[in-house]
Amino acid sequence: MTDLTSSLLEQVQQARADGTPLQIIGGNSKAFMGRPPAGEPLSLSGHSGIVSYQPVELVLTARAGTSVAEVQATLAERGQMLACDPPLFDGRATLGGTLACHLSGPGRPWSGSIRDQLLGLRLINGRGEHLRFGGQVMKNVAGYDVSRLQAGAMGTLGVITELSLKVMPVPDCTLTLVRELDAAAALTEMNRLAGQPRPLTAACWLDNRLYLRLSGAASAVQGTTHVWPGEVLEDGDAFWRDLREQRLAYFDGNAPLWRFSVKSTAAHALPDAPWLLDWGGSQRWLRGEFDQPELEALAEAAGGQVALYRGGDRNGEVLHTLPAPMQALQRRLKAALDPDGLFNPGRLYGWL
Question: From residue 159, how far is each of 96, 114, 118, 184, 275 by CA, in Å?
Fold first, then answer.
């Protein structure tokens, strides 16, 4: 448990004086995301440790370099968890990196993302100032919510040093139902079931099989198994864990991995392509070589966006093309928080 705030501040201030860009690194578990990193390494891996944990209040505060695995282990001792259930990436994933990349587990539509559970944070901006946004209670923001703005910014808006998060109790009972279904029928079924008052906490389709996770009170979970079709999957927890960590066979190999974020009700496209449908149809993974503009048109028709998540040519843009007004807004935000462009230049977009 080490507080390196003073050292981090000095490094940022010196980098600004020298005009040296900085590459922010936590556990380096997500280096495959975004465009190629550039700049002098600024490591937060040593800036770690749980600062405070209030189980009764369901609030935890930790430094950004704290591993997600450590946080989950600490919470498990009191029967609690991070509801967003982010990937651990072999224990290397950190809290700060998880927020910066905005990663969540299979239960995202039902349990929320790490952004939803973020109460506040501390941040070093491009002027070398250590700022605090939000706090440790739910209603804590007046004005622009800079804390949640960090979700998905990939470190381009500042160096996150500390986070306060809402935590949740571990469900009393969890099991998984599985049955055979094609992709189009699975999308219809996932949306239909999601509208029912049942303890559904994850829904995924892969290889013509629909997987449904039920979590909550044992009576509610068991009662649902009597009215929903499907067989109980032995060791269902292992399936969802491997999905979260991208250890399923689907994720093997070097073929480009595309991530679609679209309406859950959007029709199934490219039926002969290798798909994995997650988040009840809101997150859709696609493997293979495709033309990015064509995929962007497909995603927009489905009410969302697409990004080249892993692999492929990462020297060009990997995120969905933003319209000119959105690009202008992104540049204004960058100029306000990092006026000299020190942090992770070009990591999110080549023009940022």
Answer: 9, 17, 16, 43, 35
Q: Which of 142, 122, 140, 141 is nearest to 132 (CA)?
A: 122
How many C-beta atoms lie closer than 10 Å to residue 80's C-beta? Answer: 18
Instruction: Reduce the DSSP state of residue 217 to 3 states and report it.
Output: coil
Burial 22-53 (b: 16+ CB within 10 A, else e): bbbbbbebbeebbbebebeebbbbebbebeeb
Residue whose entry in the numeric block shows the structure tokens 């004005």? 143
Separation of alpha carbons 264 and 338, rounded Å: 36
The answer on 131 and 189 residing in a single domain is no
Q: Is 150 a domain residue?
A: yes
What is the pTM (predicted TM-score) of this model?
A: 0.95
Q: Examine the pLDDT at 159 and tell me if it is beyond 80.
A: yes
**Same structural domain, 179 and 149:** no
| Tens-place pLDDT, residues 79-125 | 999 999 999 999 999 999 999 999 999 999 999 999 999 999 999 99
